Amino acid sequence: YLALSYCWGTQNTLKSHLQLNKSTLAELKTSINTNKIAITLQEALRATYTLRYRFIWIDALCIIQGDENDWQTESASISRIYASATITLVPAAIESCDEGFLDRTIPPLLLVSFRSSHRPDLTGNFYLQATNADTHITEWNKRGWTFQELLESRRLLYFSKTMLHYSCQTVVRVESREEATSATEGFYTPWAWTHKELGVSAWFGAVREYSGRLLSNPSDKLPAISARAHDIAAQSQSQYLAGLWRDSLVLGLLWYCVDPQVDKYDSDT
């Protein structure tokens, strides 16, 4: 099966479309009227069929919205769901579920004139094409939950405004280039935070990235990175202490806020 990692938009955006809740549960068990779901979800289904898969996991259709008990149960399994998916689809170019992502445009080319310093008579032009701006500098890359989905997924297929990007633990491929690059050298390097030999030190790199991301619900701060903590705990055998590690407690306390405007949130103890 596939999984979808995407931006909902505002809290009310997805609510204006058909989604799973207590009132639609019986209906959705029978069939799904695809014309009533958000355009992002419609195109995710099209992509699933095109890739010849039968199933895709989408939170809005697989978690009962507005049901706290179901959320507590399902949120504990989200990391496993993404880790077990064959491919995670990432509509990286969109900012809300009201947008489509399958149509792409030809990226602009930057013309750079060239004259050889060794042979002044040799002149020409280079055409440069940005391959990561529309995947890295995106709303999707600013969200807290998508960070965990990024790290847990085995394979990621990014739909940017201009081209497809594919990433796994081994290689990164971009639609505009024939050759593949190493996963540690590409436009995304999530695997740098998963190497077993790094142990707890991998946590600090992950937290540095994660802490700059946004969450609609401040109470999701620890749950949205809990899978990474669980993985590192299994690798390092260190004790996890709500965002810190016993073996590196002093180092973990050496933090500071880049932005002083931080929402205060006290986790349940």
From TrEMBL:
Q: Where are the transmembrane segments?
A: none
Q: Where is the signal peptide?
A: none
Heterokaryon incompatibility domain residues are: 1-149
The name on file for this protein is HET-domain-containing protein
Tell me which InterPro entries the record gives: HET
Q: Which Pfam families match?
A: HET
